[in-house]
Amino acid sequence: MGYSEKKYGEDNQWAGFVDGQNVIGRGREILLQGFNWESHKYQWWPSLEQKIPQISKAGFTSVWLPPAFDSLAPQGYLPRNIYSLNSEYGSEYQLKSLLKTMQNNNVRAMADIVINHRVGSTQGAGGLYNRYDGMALPWDERAVTRCTGGHGNWSTGDNFHGVPNIDHTQDFVRNDLKNWLQWLRKSVGFQDFRFDFAKGFAAKFVKEYIEAAGPMFSVGEYWDSCNYSPPSYHLDYNQDSHRQRIIDWIDSTGGLCAAFDFTTKGILQEAVKGEWWRLRDSQGKPAGVLGWWPSRAVTFIENHDTGSTQGHWPFPSNHIMEGYAYILTHPGIPKVFYDHFFDWGSSIQDQIIKLMQIRRSQDLHSRSSIKILEASAHVYAAMIGEKVCMKVGEGSWCPWGREWKLATSGHRYAVWHK
Fold first, then answer.
1. Active site residue 403
2. In a domain, 413, yes or no
3. Average pLDDT, integer, range 264-269
4. How many domains does the chain have?
5. Which pTM value belongs to this model?
6. Could you say which of 49, 70, 88, 196 is catalytic?
């Protein structure tokens, strides 16, 4: 059970090309989520632009930006006129200034692609706001799925309740969206894509959109619940079926899109409580998506939904550096959350930067080899890429041999290299 990396390319390069361009990254990305749930309140584009030189110097290769278009909700996740780049985060001019500064500092801009649902402008069939009169992309009820009040076909995924869901089976909808995505890439200046609520429409459409627009890197938010068993509903040790669902989604994109590794997040935030054995599966591999398809696994410990002021599924706050010590040394594509990097104090920021420096200097990447050396109640230890060792947890552990040098350490974690 599980996925073989060999199906989609060899060595350390991702496979997948559109018009000769590699569309799913280089395997050495380190991502920053450049916002939280409240960022729209703070003139975000100019504020973030001031931080771009610092972000670049730290070693981030790509910054995930919040939805940059007109939206009913200030956070951007109820889009209306998606060709309007004036949002609660700032004006079109401010956005383009930010993107130019990012380009000048060799930091890629990741667009948040919200195309599962769209708020209408006009009441149509059934008295619902399921028409888009007067907007760019002036769709009618045919663009809305039948199960959310439109005249389109049934949804190919889960419904996002309360607003019209887009029917991606319609040729005119897909053509319009492909033109829009190409505009974001070629005219606006975004290079990477993050697909919001990827459970809401079939992954084959994500493949089609990526092939049309050719982003350098793409990641999908395929988030469903981990496996819990009654009566206590404590997290199951075996999360194979959970990660298999994410693997299947990635596979249905033709391997062109990565996915956030929600399996690893769920396991890791239980492991830090003194259950480090959870991080080694029954085959001796990492227990999340990164254990089966690491080059398509975007690892993270928090985002604007799970943490921030929403707090839907928060990582234990007194263990975040153990979490970062894990994801920044392991295979996969690690993502750092804005709040942790900028709002939790200089000590946390310095520790994250040091771990990133080790990742780069020792050339750890999405497909680095890993050997788990210990996974017990109190300590987890692993060797990554033959020249880095790390441990997390309250238990004592260090690598054997004089060739190992302590590279960094903090509360309940340490990293060594040769």
1. no
2. no
3. 98
4. 1
5. 0.95
6. 196
